[in-house]
Amino acid sequence: xxxxxxxxxxxxxxxxxxxxxxxxxxxxxxxxxxxxxxxxxxxxxxxxxxxxxxxxxxxxxxxxxxxxxxxxxxxxxxxxxxxxxxxxxxxxxxxxxxxxxxxxxxxxxxxxxxxxxxxxxxxxxxxxxxxxxxxxxxxxxxxxxxxxxxxxxxxxxxxxxxxxxxxxxxxxxxxxxxxxxxxxxxxxxxxxxxxxxxxxxxxxxxxxxxxxxxxxxxxxxxxxxx
Length: 226
Prior knowledge:
The chain is mainly alpha-helical. It is built from 14 helices and no strands. It is 72% helix and 0% strand. α5 runs parallel beside α7.
């Protein structure tokens, strides 16, 4: 693990680190390593559950990103997911862990349900980042699971915190692009939200509607269905 962290430190640049602030990412414990470099390192290192755990414990931004790329989904416990999720403190780590690791575990759907009701900003974001990720990677999931996800989205759409509402919107748009059937259900949800008295919910609904009713999405869904 020390060798890996040393390499991360060596490959970091002040230019990358300084640029992180523009995207709302913390740079106080970051080396400034490009994501493309992290992917290269992960490919070379291969899957390693023990290494991932050690990297996570360092607290360094890039080490935690790398942990998401090298951990073994089949060995991740629900307790580990909860522990890591409680330590999310920025959208980059939250979304990367959900999209590259957590959505491949057998606990993913249960965690969507559990975390969607939590108050902590990044735990709640994780619920909807994970739901969005499942639309892309869980090919075997039935549509009923995503319909239930839409109910969770509608319930959370009034959360005005930026990182939560953007993840809710992301999940809504992703579900609506999974299939023609889900597109219609998601559009109905988006229309209800778009007429809400709540400003956050209105933004979620209107923004999602623009994409879900677009000609480009309709064409992609028609091709997929045909």
